[in-house]
Amino acid sequence: MKRLGKIYFALILMFLYVPIFVLIVFSFNETKSRSVFSGFTLEWYAKLFQNRIIIHSLVNTIIIATLASIISTVLGTLAAIGINSMRKVPKAAVMNITNMPIINPEIVTGVSLMLLFVFFAARMNFEFGFVTLLIAHITFDVPYVILNIMPKFKQMDPNLFEAAQDLGCSPMQAFRKVILPEIMPGVISGFLMAFTYSLDDFVISYFTSGSTSQTLPITIYSMTRRKISPEINALSTIIFIVVLVILVVKNFVENRAAKNNSFKGERA
Amino acid sequence: MDNIVSLKNIVVEFEDGDQILKNISLDIKDKEFVTFLGPSGCGKTTTLRIIAGFLEPTSGDVLFEGQRINDVPPHKRNVNTVFQRYALFPHLNVYENIAFGLRVKKLPEKEILHRVGEMLEMVNLKGFEKRTVNRLSGGQQQRVAIARALVNHPKVLLLDEPLGALDLKLRKEMQVELRKIQQALELTFVYVTHDQEEALTMSDTVVVMNNGVIQQIGSPIDIYNEPVNAFVADFIGESNIVNGCMPRDCLVEFTGRQFECVDKGFDPDETVDVVIRPEDVKIIPAENAKLTGIVESVVFKGVHYEMVVDGVDHKWIIHSTKAEPVGAMIGMTFDPYDIHIMKKVQEG
Amino acid sequence: MKKLKVFSAPYLVWMIVFIVVPLLMVAYYAFTTDSGAFTIKNISNVGQYANIFVRSIWLALVATVICLVLAYPVAYLLSRMEKHKQGTMLLIVMLPMWMNFLLRTYAWMTLLGNNGVINHILGFVGLGPYKLINTSGAVVLGMVYNYLPFMILPLYSVMEKIDKSVIEAASDLGCSSGGVMLRVIVPLSLPGITSGITMVFVPAISTFIISRMLGGGSNLLIGDLIEMQFLGNAYNPQLGAAISLVLMVIILVIMTVMNQFSPDDQVLI
Question: Which domains does chain C show, CATH number per domain?
């Protein structure tokens, strides 16, 4: 039984990884063939770095993701604090609407924003581009920030705010010195989630970007629509390695933090 | 009375070579209330899990009614367990939790209804059938756990610190309750606890364990009065334990003085542990005492006073119905049969 | 803390302008003509595409079932590993998901293509070439590959919370390992099953990338249909809005059904 489990697990991992490894292998292929490996080359990597469209959209993606995640973290943190102090019914109503962009299919969110932008573009004379893209990204990022912070309020001692005031803090000070540090882990994880979703998003960007402001996923999409180009393989390889390094480092840091914590716990 | 469960030379070793149980052998008689007693990590729960079948010993045999059952999986053993934190099924209500084992056996609905009803009555939970288990108090959950195990009519019921999560008053009530159930159903109970008082009140036989080794097996009275070594003496009730030696049979020397005792069979001048219960220290006027000390503190404990007396080389704990003033010089003496001489415990 | 309510004001404005209003506009467009007059023609026109709806629902359903069947043992094995191994193994399982899904889908284009790796390997043993890409099977495969982690994660997070002693209790009470699975683990992982199903089904039924990249022109899905009304040659936002609305209703119905299977006191993650 145990062996069977291990074999099954290995098969699933193969299913998940083989396609990616094939991509990586063919990024070093001399010819454009997608089935025969004829020789080693780094040509596609060189071409990739010379491709102005890709570099441009990569920079654009990073700018959008950074701006969108910072703005939505500020907006979402303030929102979470406010929502938390609402009464039950309005709170439930706001949370239900906040959940909509998460529950709704991405294409519906994208289309609905596009309709809004089309409506106003016609009347206020602006074009699809950087601004619409940024607005769209903030809109689907904020819910993730809020959802990351709300549970922190639940875990928090409800008397904390009063205790701080009892000890001489003004409400503003109490907020800064007590509430903010308590919800900080949620704020950070919300920010990181927003950032990764922004980097990765294709569908909503596709409907809200217009032709002037492309993100990397949109560029990738148009590359896959055109002729076969091993540059995509090279790009995949780089992205895979970057993701791998980030996750391994993250895992390592977390494990060490967990070990430190348990060590402190033992001593206490 | 036959042996229902026997453990023969059980060794449990983890992958890293840590020995949890070091050669345990033990017989449990039918209809007996046996308690494994010891500090946490002593191997008592491990022993219970071996009997239940959740753990296979590295070596040694587990016998059930004379049959070797090492390879029998838990679901085919005629024993049931009451788990430490109850392990009730959160997706089932009280009735379905208790009926679980019967449904697995595919008994007819009528019999299930009858037997679950019987159990609900026994554990005083009539009317709670439809409750979700998460909405029960700790004591009620405990009772569901007991009913869920007993409804299957196991020959042996295993209980892993079942009262640990309850408050003191409820715990005392449940101790009496459990003992009653055991006697009424004439079942074998194997009980694990770290609470020595609980072990002494409930059991027919107490098995004291430490570091994966059985220290002593005996009736509660034997264990209390005749602990075989300093560990048992210390673990079962409070004790004064001092170093001593035996110049000859029936004479022991400690804190520089010689006392008469009743123990024999030690090598001449063998070093030993001398154990004296706090209630066995008699207070006499200091003038005519071999051993004297100054009262350091007095605490009223309800039935008796507990005094700490600073004597030569040792602080004595004394239980007495009369208090002596702090700072007073008092004399102490012991009856020969209250002085318990024990061989030193081998280290390792 | 009541005064803190004002903090949410900027977000509330944002929420209304960019979440509520756009969705209302979808509804508005769905029920109006080009010139703004009320009509139900758009909605009734959706009926012409019934075959595409049926295909989308069918393919998404098949993909969801395959995901559930594949993911369930993975999640169970993960949840029963030693605690310190679980984090790393989960990371390994989830890592491919961090690649952009366009690239993951592109990878299968390479594998399945008529001159792709699989046909090439089959050619060595004298088989094929088979038509692998541009089939509905390829679309389902793409869905399973892309969304499998969405099924594993919620299943794992409920299973990981199942107390080991509850499983022991079941076998103590006479369950064989199959019985434990059926009577304890499956019922207790129900919330994970339902949320996994929604997390796979919703993106699967609304995708247009997977069908476009792996399905060729012959496997249009609802997503393609919507995309064509807004950015394609068939430009017709009224019809697109109507299709979107119908899609939302379908998903709403399915989620309500799923919630029926989830016990009240066990909240969906």
Answer: 48-232 (1.10.3720.10)
- Stretch (H or E) spanning B25: strand B19-29
Do B217 and B245 fall into the same domain?
A: no
Residue B14 lies in a domain: yes
ipTM: 0.90
Query: Residue C263: its pLDDT value, please?
Result: 59
B-chain residue closest to C161, CA distance: B90
Which of A20, A22, A35 would best serve as a mutation to test chain C binding (most C beta carbons within 10 A)? Answer: A35
CA distance C224 to C228: 6
* Chains contacting chain A through 3 or more C-beta pairs under 8 A: C
First to last CA, chain C: 28
Q: Smallest Cβ distance to B87: which of C165, C174, C183?
A: C165
pLDDT at B178 over 70: yes
Q: How far is the C-alpha of A139 from the C-alpha of A114, rounded, in Å?
A: 13
Give the span between the Cα atoms of A112 and A70, in whole angstroms. 24
Count of structural domains, chain B: 2
Q: What is the CATH number of the domain that holds B273?
A: 2.40.50.140
Could you read off the pLDDT of B316-328 as tens digits, one per residue?
A: 999 999 888 999 9
Q: Chains A, B in contact: 3+ Cβ pairs under 8 A?
A: no
**Residue B99 sits in which domain range?**
3-230
Taking only residues 51 to 80 of chain B, the set having a beta carbon closer than 8 angstroms to any beta carbon of chain C reads 52, 54, 73-75, 79-80
Q: Is B54 close to C263, i.e. CB distance below 8 A? A: no
CATH 1.10.3720.10 fits A52-225, yes or no: yes
Give the one of C173, C176, C184 whose C-beta lies nearest to B152's C-beta: C173
What is the average per-residue pLDDT within B249-272? Answer: 88
Residue B199 falls inside a structural domain: yes
Please answer whether residues C62 and C205 qualify as being in contact, where contact means their C-beta atoms are separated by less than 8 angstroms.
no
For residue range C178-229, list pLDDT tens digits in order: 999 999 999 999 999 999 999 999 999 999 999 999 988 788 999 999 999 9
What is the pLDDT at residue B346? 59
Q: What pLDDT, on the 0 to 100 scale, is given for residue B287?
A: 87
pLDDT of residue C1: 53
Q: How far apart are the CA of A43 and the nearest CA of chain C, in angstroms? A: 19
B132 touches chain C (CB under 8 A): yes
Tell me if A251 and C87 make a contact (CB, 8 A cut-off).
yes
Supply the pTM of this predicted model. 0.84
Packing angle, helices B138-150 and B109-122, rounded to 10: 130
- The verdict on residue B348 lying in a domain is no
Chain B neighbours (≥3 Cβ pairs under 8 A) are: C
Q: Is C2's pLDDT higher than 70? A: no
C203 touches chain A (CB under 8 A): yes
Blockwise average pLDDT, block size 10, chain A, 268 residues: 88 95 90 82 90 91 96 95 90 93 93 92 85 95 95 84 80 82 93 94 92 88 81 91 90 80 46
User: Minimal Cα distance from B134: which residue of C?
Assistant: C265
Q: Are B207 and B267 in the same domain? A: no
Average pLDDT rounded to a whole number, residues B234-252: 88
Q: Are strands B188-193 and B156-160 parallel, antiparallel or unpaired?
A: parallel
pLDDT digits (tens, 9 = 90+) for B262-271: 888 888 888 8
Q: Is B271 in the same domain as B202? A: no
Helix/strand/coil (H/E/C) assignment for every residue in A67-123: HHHHHHHHHHHHHHHHHHCCCHHHHHHHHHHHHHHHHCCHHHHHHHHHHHHHHHHHH
Distance CA B117, CA B103 (A): 15
Instruction: Pick the closest to residue C208 from C259, C249, C173, C243 (CA basis).
Output: C243
The chain A residue lying nearest C23, using CA atoms, is A112
Which residue in B has a C-alpha nearest to residue C263's C-alpha?
A: B91
Q: Is the pLDDT of residue C265 over 70?
A: no
For residue A96, what are the CA distances in angstroms to A92, A141, A143, C43? 6, 16, 10, 26
Give the pairing type, strands B79-82 and B156-160: parallel
